[in-house]
């Protein structure tokens, strides 16, 4: 049984009736019957944290507009916020990354450098990401994919090679992380990667036969990783088309993402797009068990 099938079965059997209802989607669950603008009960917060770990992606529906300060309050349920991005003048809070298709409304050109997790350039990548679309364009989805499923279904040749690979961040003083490692909570094998922010790969890092991948190998490895996300017409992907009131909490270490090409279309063509995102500091550096 695949990891995704098991997660969906768990989601279908999970009804926290006293708190909220979960309904399975292709990746994770939709959540209804809760108001994130006012919810502060410790037992509900703990249930949400458990459900994010279990289902990897929670899409809270019908939340209206969540203000920047409240977005930050919700984020703190999961740990310390870490903000490494450009602070746009119109951001509602210093820890809220404001993204848009209008440079005067938010940071533009975001999310189109390839599949990735956030914070791969950190010693410990971000543990969670929380998203809220405060102004919805006519087009412009966010696409997610489950990392454990991708690793579990790798062809034998790729898996053998990827187990030997370590990614080198594009930051000069950035860390070196294993490409495949164990999720710090679930222990599932996942990926630490960013197709647009990796300067190289090392085979057998720290071992006697350690060597840097050649330029040709580097380009081929990036292509191989991308292929696992797009093969079979992107069957592994969950494309989230935003609706008013959607608020997403993602286990950043379990779910990769990429903005669709339509997110870059100008405001004059698809209307104004404004996305708010926060990221939670990681606490454990990627490592193999």
Automatic annotation (TrEMBL):
InterPro entries under this entry? Answer: TauD-like_sf (IPR042098), TauD/TfdA-like (IPR003819), TfdA_dioxygenase (IPR051178)
According to the UniProt entry, its GO molecular function terms are:
dioxygenase activity; metal ion binding
Please verify whether the record's keywords include Iron.
yes
The UniProt keyword set, sorted, is: Dioxygenase, Iron, Metal-binding, Oxidoreductase
Q: Which domain of life is it from?
A: Eukaryota
* SUPFAM superfamilies hit by this protein: Clavaminate synthase-like
Gene3D superfamilies listed in its UniProt record: Clavaminate synthase-like (3.60.130.10)
- Annotated ranges, domain TauD/TfdA-like: 24-266
Task: Locate the coiled-coil region(s) and give their ranges.
Answer: none
The record's section on PANTHER family has: (3R)-3-[(CARBOXYMETHYL)AMINO]FATTY ACID OXYGENASE_DECARBOXYLASE, DIOXYGENASE RV0097-RELATED
Family statement: Belongs to the TfdA dioxygenase family.
Q: Supply the name of the protein.
A: TauD/TfdA-like domain-containing protein
